[in-house]
Design brief:
With 697 residues, this protein is α+β, with helices and mostly antiparallel strands. It folds into five domains: 68 residues, Alpha-Beta Plaits; 236 residues, no CATH class; 64 residues, Calcium-transporting ATPase, cytoplasmic transduction domain A (Distorted Sandwich); 141 residues, HAD superfamily/HAD-like (Rossmann fold); 106 residues, Calcium-transporting ATPase, cytoplasmic domain N (3-Layer(aba) Sandwich), CATH 3.40.1110.10. The chain contains 25 helices and 26 strands. The longest helix has 36 residues.
Length: 697
């Protein structure tokens, strides 16, 4: 039959049920990348999700099923938790008499022990056999293999006791299965708690939206809202869509989206975000973005992708996990043979079972992703979007932060402080200049437009517009060729300009200097604190800008920044960042403009300021949801905490196995205690990661 399902042209996330350890995730990744058309696949044990790029959806889901797992779409409401809970209760009820007889020093008839233990072994524990068989077919080892081997050996030895004078271990096989299931359930709860950032974000969007169509107000599901619909938001309600206020005045609480604690005033022309809360006014909002294209939708997707991404250190863990299970099986065999050679064959078999049960790679596999999941969630709560786990690792090692000036350390809302026309016709020149800048996204360009609008001037049509990054703009307005920019732009056009240090922008018309403008851009009130916070963390700061040296030095002097690079074109910014990296600096670049995008890419970590150009946000590894440079220090501090938790978890996971395996091999650890220790190790690793939720900036 031909596969007619649509190709996955964008990353698609599937929920995966049935993974028990990092080896399962690694095996499934290998299966998925072999599916025709799949270009990339990433599987996260911590979130129990697979992110797949390319391929046909039906083919991908079928491959997951053949690998022994159950796939579901990420937004599926199906939940296997009730079934698993029921199976655990059944196992506990059947196992309790077996444990009680041991505790009371009694001996239950062997046949009755078998009656109680058999359903636990083969019905409740069937998932371990299914997982082990799927893994062995792929020639890999997983936790399922260890549990299936260990409990089957204990059960088989007990069955042999019907025919030979051997001890029974029915209670051990049943208790191990119970404890493993209990541990996985506790671990799942902890993982869901770690991943609650996505749940919290999705809960921000209301189920229904009140819209006005053809003058008639109606209430419809959010999914049915269309672009340009007019939404009506009453006092205290959440905004259902991204949009622009067209009528009304109010305030919006955006704290859960951007981390900004103070309400933001909203008036006609202002943008609003889906998920924020309206204040005490009634607003009519024109819809500009819906669904996954809204700010909230993009946040959910970025957080999901970041939580499922792998930190560089995870590659080491994956390599260890790939050989872990075969090594443990070999150690169990060696343990049994050693005791048998010493004349303690039955004792050795019990010790071998304990080795198989205690050496679960779950804690090792959860060490890194659990910390990443919680860290990404905490970053989002503080107004920082992290696009990948690698950003945490690099940011934690940062030695130098390079800031762009305009829109990053300054407010990015410059105004015309002075305007001069050579021929004295300032109004006519301002119309030409503002019209030329109307197509520019640069804050300096917007200052010209704002000045013209404030004077009530009508802009002229623009016939052609071209931005010259790091230099200015060139446009044709009403038949005139207009240049606006710095000395370098005019030098490139062979136009001589006077040597006047106070001029920010020169204005040229038809090949001649027609005037000049001085612009003022206030330094953000939080910029000084941001630099001080970085100093406390032991991270130095630098200023990198396309502005003239005199302006850059003045801003740097006010903020206490020693390293300054001015009059930098986009390629100069990249070269400057590259030079710093070659010196051994771990560089974070913070910017918000189009001309910052290449430098953001070149730095070890690029951080885009909230409200910046889309291309800068795309190029960055982190995005600040509000324009507050203090968040840079917060991002570094949180990255360091995440890194600490990762290494704590890895240390605990390795130490657990280093200590537990010799105890089990020497016969000092019963299979039941081994099962409890294995369950505790996984829960403790996730619990340690959850301590990141106490982080405060």
């Amino acid at each position: 039959m031909n596969d007619i399902s649509p190709s996955l042209k964008i990353a698609t996330t599937l929920k995966i049920e049935g993974m028990t350890c990092v080896a399962c995730a690694t095996r499934l990744e290998k299966v998925l990348v072999r599916v025709p058309g799949v270009t990339q696949a990433s599987v996260s044990l911590a979130s129990e999700e697979a992110t797949v790029m390319g391929g046909a959806l039906d083919s991908v889901m079928e491959a997951v099923r053949k690998a022994g797992f159950i796939p579901r779409l990420a937004d599926s409401q199906a939940d296997s938790a009730p079934r698993k809970k029921f199976e655990l209760i059944v196992a506990a009820v059947l196992t309790l008499p077996l444990v009680a007889q041991m505790a009371l020093g009694l001996m239950m008839p062997l046949w009755l022990q078998a009656v109680l233990a058999t359903p636990v072994q083969f019905w409740v524990g069937r998932s371990f056999y299914a997982g082990a068989w799927a893994a062995l077919k792929e020639r890999t080892g997983t936790m399922d293999v260890l549990v299936a081997l260990g409990t089957s050996a204990a059960y088989g030895l007990s069955v042999a006791a019907f025919f030979w004078p051997l001890d029974s271990y029915f209670e051990s096989s049943a208790v191990v299965i119970c404890l493993v299931l209990l541990g996985k359930m506790l671990e799942a709860r902890a993982r869901h708690s770690a991943a609650d950032a996505i749940t919290a974000l999705m809960a921000l969007r209301p189920e229904l939206a009140r819209v006005e169509r053809d003058g008639v107000p109606m209430e419809i599901p959010v999914g049915e809202v269309r672009l340009d619909d007019v939404a009506i938001i009453r006092s205290g309600e959440r905004f259902a869509v991204d949009g622009e206020v067209i009528d009304g005045h109010s305030q919006a609480d955006e704290s859960l989206l951007t981390g900004e604690s103070l309400p933001v005033v909203k008036a006609p022309g202002d943008a609003v975000l889906a998920g924020s809360t309206n204040g005490d006014g009634l607003l009519r909002v024109k819809t500009t973005a819906i669904g996954h294209l809204s700010t909230l939708g993009k946040m959910v997707e970025l957080v999901r992708q970041a939580q499922n991404s792998k930190a560089p250190v995870q590659k080491l863990v994956d390599r260890v996990a790939a050989i872990f299970v075969p090594v443990v099986v070999g150690l169990a065999v060696l343990t049994g043979l050693t005791w048998w050679a010493l004349g303690q064959g039955q004792y050795g078999l019990v010790a071998a079972i304990a080795v198989l049960v205690v050496a679960c790679p779950c804690a090792l596999g959860l060490a890194t992703p659990a910390a990443i999941m919680v860290g990404v969630g905490m970053a989002a709560r503080h107004g920082i979007l992290v696009k990948g786990a690698g950003a945490f690792e690099a940011a934690a090692k940062a030695t130098l932060v390079v800031f762009d000036k305009t829109g990053t350390l300054t407010e990015g809302k410059p105004s015309l402080a002075a305007f001069h026309a050579v021929d004295g016709d300032e109004q006519g020149l301002l119309i030409l200049a503002a019209s030329a800048q109307a197509g520019s996204e640069h804050p300096l360009g917007k200052a010209f437009v704002a000045a013209a609008v404030a004077k009530g001037l009508t802009l002229a049509p623009v016939e052609r517009f071209a931005a010259q990054p790091g230099r200015g703009i060139e446009a044709v307005v009403a038949g005139h060729t207009v240049l606006i920019g710095n000395d370098r732009l005019f030098q490139e056009h062979d136009i001589a300009v006077p040597a006047v240090s106070s001029v920010c922008e020169w204005i040229g018309v038809d090949g001649k200097v027609a005037g000049s403008a001085e612009l003022a851009d206030r330094v953000r009130v939080t910029s000084g604190t941001a630099i001080d916070d970085l100093d406390v963390l032991g991270v130095r700061s630098a200023l990198l800008t396309g502005d003239r040296p005199v302006i850059a030095q003045a801003v740097a002097r006010d903020l206490g920044i020693d390293l300054v690079k001015a009059q930098a074109l986009p390629q100069d910014k990249v070269a400057f960042i590259a030079e710093l990296c070659e010196r051994g600096e771990i560089v974070l670049m913070v910017g918000d403009g189009i001309n910052d995008a290449p430098a953001l890419k070149r730095a070890h970590v690029g951080i885009a300021m909230g409200g910046g150009a889309d291309v800068a946000l795309e190029a960055a590894d982190m995005a600040l949801l509000r324009p507050d440079p203090r968040l840079v220090a917060t991002a570094i501090a949180l990255s360091r905490r995440v890194g600490t938790k990762i290494w704590q978890n890895l240390f605990w996971a390795f130490l657990y196995n280093v200590v537990a395996l010799p105890f089990a091999a020497s016969g000092h650890l019963s299979p039941m205690i081994a099962g409890a220790a294995m369950a505790l190790s996984s829960v403790s690793v996730v619990g340690n990661a959850l301590l990141l939720r106490t982080f405060k900036s």
